[in-house]
Amino acid sequence: MIEIENVKKSFGQLDVLKGMSLTIPKGQATGIVGPNGAGKTTLIKTILGLVKADSGLIKVNGQPLDKDGKYRKNIGYMPQVARYPENMRVYELFDFIKGLRDQDPVYEEELIDQFTLRPELEKSLRNLSGGNRQKVGATLAMMFNPDILFFDEPTAGLDPRSSHKFKKRVENEKEDGKTVIITSHIMSELEQLVDHVVFILDGNIRYYGSMEKLLNESNETRLEAAIATMMDEDPQEVAA
Ligand SMILES: Nc1ncnc2c1ncn2[C@@H]1O[C@H](COP(=O)(O)OP(=O)(O)OP(=O)(O)O)[C@@H](O)[C@H]1O
């Protein structure tokens, strides 16, 4: 479980998180949606300790974030844009991360095969295609079998087959009791994967609750229509 209490973050004059509070339940999947620049990635990075909140409290599994970042051992993160040492080969990157984490991977070989990364292992990261970089990020996020998984726009750039495999994998992770947090602009994808929806607008949480409740309350059958309706109700915020 991840508890977020009145978290604020500004970059200079820009108030990105304006006092957000929410609880992300354990063992379920939560989708974070919102317009470009709404603060989705900033919220994720704040939970991961990669961005320091100006104020507020974040607890992961009941514990406030520790300064040495030990809690992150239990977290996998697939960033929206991954920056790697570009001269490293893919297998060297995997070895490097294993060394850094001082952990043996559980699913390295399985994920390499699942994402057909084996022919890419000898390549330098600078020479990888965009989709294969994404798959490297997905593999790193899941290979240590963490309890909490963050995916920031995971399927952007994946071909349909890889995207399908990725979603199947995430479904399996969920069935295994993992806590999954995903941001995406592809609402059909979230419909398939998530139990709860967080809709961020203008630095605030505009909606937080189950997908089912959201569809019922908005009288819509599809998430895309429900979110679009909420955006239309706040035209100024969306335009901002
Ligand atoms: N390190 C930073 N310094 C200054 N501004 C930043 C920084 N990181 C993010 N921002 C700004 O904070 C706002 C929120 O960015 P964020 O990446 O969280 O949005 P997002 O909801 O993930 O957007 P998208 O859907 O486009 O990925 C944006 O206006 C962005 O330019």
From TrEMBL:
One annotated GO molecular function: ATP binding
InterPro entries in alphabetical order: AAA+_ATPase, ABC_transporter-like_ATP-bd, ABC_transporter_ATP-binding, P-loop_NTPase
Keywords: ATP-binding, Nodulation, Nucleotide-binding, Transport
Domain of life: Bacteria
Keyword Nucleotide-binding: yes
PROSITE patterns: ABC_TRANSPORTER_2
Residue span, ABC transporter domain: 2-227
Family: Belongs to the ABC transporter superfamily.
Name of the protein described by the UniProt record: Copper ABC transporter ATP-binding protein
Native source organism of the sequence: Rhodohalobacter barkolensis
UniProt lineage: Bacteria, Pseudomonadati, Balneolota, Balneolia, Balneolales
